[in-house]
């Protein structure tokens, strides 16, 4: 794989479109196939040619042998004619003469390349035929003795000469045949190797091209995918290293630009968020200082530090204090929510006792309930296990729920109930208030939502309490919800693990 | 013998409130508007209790507290931190700086007075 990397790199660096690269690769492979085919055809036609040569040689040899046979037969038929001198043997000799002529023509045709030997053969043949013709004429003329003389003196040596010549031709043809067969075997072997080598080369090149092309495409895609995963995980710092000079290279460049832009925006956002949190923290501090003076003077006046206040004055001072504390509640809520949003609210985990929390809530809020002549019931199951979590924040949640219940209930009672089940606390606050419609229930736990904005103005509150409570309960790994019907009161309840060892990050 | 209380606080109203709050008990109040005045007054008068405003410009209350607690002669003077930073963990910061107690603003004068009485009785 590593060996191929420079090749992959080369393909990637080619300044051409992906389409063109693919087309070029396919064309290269097709060209190779054509070359393999052509080489195969070439080899086949070579083999064919050699076979034809051999057949030609075979036919030559046959023709030579035929002529040899004809020569002997001619001598033999003349001898027979000499012996019997009848018409039958003479016509046999003539037939043989005809056959011989025909065979010599054939020989001249198949062995036309053996110019010199054939010429010699033709001359000797002509002389032999002349002699034989004269011998036949002599026999016909009854001059048998003369004919025999001519036969022995002229025809036989000529026949021998002809036989020598054909033997030469046969030998030559046989030698040609042997060398032809040898050459054919050799060239066949070579051709085999050439075809196999070309085929293997084509396969290797096709695989190599396929590998290089596919990796020059898949590599960058994988790289970009990895990068986008990092971005999804919030890491904008990395860059995609893609060397391609094609569409994928352009894509990688754009991904990098996008990441840079996202990273820049993210940094800006973080900075803005930090500034916002800092601003809210400062604001909260700045607001608390004058509020301290307002609440401090009010309390001192009520306590008679500046002379005994009248009954009417005491009432006004109480209103002043209540409003100041409400303002403080608003400041705290806004600060809490901004901290939650900035992820800066950290639970302080320690051991707490549900009974204590319920008691704190009771002592804080029972007077308020009593003012409205509402019943106040606290039902904590006996022997609840000691919990682990942020007791202060849980107290804040319960105060919020009970405070809301008192705020919205005009008659009846408020009941706090706490129990433990399967390693989880379940705490509920039931009231006999007006109840909440299903549509409003859905919005209750969102920021700045109260069931009825008119009520908000009448009853006070930021509408942040439930949103904050929800986040605090969720940070404990718990759940908070409401069950209510219009006209039948409401029950707000939450569950959370008895032991919380680690803060749950918001989803 | 009346107790001496040092108040380090840059807000005029807050000093006034503390003064009015302490009007009912027998004590001498020394007011300091910044760390320099406070350190000078502490060295001179050796108060019985220090009410330490934390968020002061130049040198804050925690730095002053650390200096006091680093001085063997002054270490035993109780210091109550008064801070308007109500962030999580602010109490830890106050304790770590050596403050004996911590009161977040806005505080109830009644509540602060109770704490002061408690320290003065010790």
Topology of helices and strands:
The complex is a heterodimer of chains A (507) and B (122).
Chain A: H1 5-13, H2 18-84, H3 87-110, H4 115-140, H5 144-232, H6 247-302, H7 311-341, E1 350-352, H8 354-371, E2 375-380, E3 387-389, H9 391-408, E4 413-421, E5 424-431, H10 438-443, H11 453-459, H12 465-475, E6 479-484, E7 490-497
Chain B: E1 3-8, H1 12-21, E2 27-32, H2 35-45, E3 49-53, H3 61-70, E4 79-83, H4 90-97, E5 101-104, H5 109-121
Parallel strand pairs in B: 1-2, 1-3, 3-4, 4-5
What keywords describe this structure?
heterodimer, A: 507 residues, alpha+beta, Helix Hairpins, Heat Shock Protein 90, 3 domains, 5-stranded mixed β-sheet, two-stranded antiparallel ribbon, 12 helices, rod-shaped, B: 122 residues, alpha/beta, Rossmann fold, 5 helices, 43% helix, globular
Q: What's this model, at a glance?
A:
The complex is a heterodimer of chains A (about 500) and B (about 120). Chain A is built from twelve helices and seven strands.
Walk me through what this model shows:
The complex is a heterodimer of chains A (507) and B (122). With 507 residues, chain A is an alpha+beta fold. Chain A has three domains: 5-222; 263-345, Helix Hairpins, CATH 1.10.287.130; 346-497, Histidine kinase-like ATPase, C-terminal domain (Heat Shock Protein 90). Chain A has helices at residues 5-13, 18-84, 87-110, 115-140, 144-232, 247-302, 311-341, 354-371, 391-408, 438-443, 453-459, 465-475; strands spanning 350-352, 375-380, 387-389, 413-421, 424-431, 479-484, 490-497. In chain A, helix 5 (144-232) packs parallel to helix 6. Chain B is an alpha/beta fold and 122 residues long. Chain B has one domain (3-121): Rossmann fold. Chain B has five helices and five strands, in the order βαβαβαβαβα. Chain B has helices at residues 12-21, 35-45, 61-70, 90-97, 109-121, and strands at 3-8, 27-32, 49-53, 79-83, 101-104. In chain B, strands 2-1-3-4-5 form a five-stranded parallel sheet, sandwiched between helices. Chain A binds chain B through residues 281, 284-285, 288-297, 299-300, 303, 305-306, 324, 328, 332, 335, 339, 345-346, 348, and chain B through 11, 13-14, 17, 20-21, 23-24, 55, 84-89, 105-110.
